[in-house]
Amino acid sequence: MKRTTLAAAIACLAAPAPALAEGELHLYIWSDYITDAAIERFAEETGITVSVDVYDSNETLEARMLAGGSGYDVVVPTTDFMQRQIAAGVYQPLDREQLGNLEHMDEGLMARAATFDPGNEHGTVYMWGTTGIGYNIDMVAERLGEDYEVNSWELLFDPEIAAQVADCGISMLDAPTEMIPAALAYLGLDPQSHSDEDLEVAGELLASVREHVRYYHSSQYIGDLANGEVCVSVGWSGDVFQAAARAEEADRGVNVWYAIPEEGAMVWFDMLAIPSDAPNAENAHLFINYLMEPDVIAEVTNYVWYANANRSSWPMVDAEITADPAIFPPQEVMDRLFTGVTYTSREDRALTRMWTRVRTGQ
Amino acid sequence: MSAPDAVPSASHAPLYRRLFLIAVVALALALRFDLLTLEAQTAGTLTLILWTTALALIALEASDALGISRRWLVIALPMLWLFVFFLVPFLVLGRISIAESMIARPPYSPLWERGSDGSLEIIASLDNYRFLLSDALYRNAYLSSFRVAAISTIFALLIGYPLAYYIARAPEPRRSILLLLVILPFWTSFLLRVYAWIGFLRRDGVINNILTWAGVIDEPLVMMQTDLAVYIGIVYTYLPFMILPLYANLVKLDGALLEAAGDLGASPMVTFLTITLPLSLPGIVAGSMLVFIPAIGEYVIPALLGGPDTLMIGRVLWDEFFASRDWPVASAVAIVMLVLVVLPIMWLQSVQNREVPK
Question: Which residues of B touch A214 (CB under 8 A)?
Answer without folding.
Answer: 222, 224-225, 307
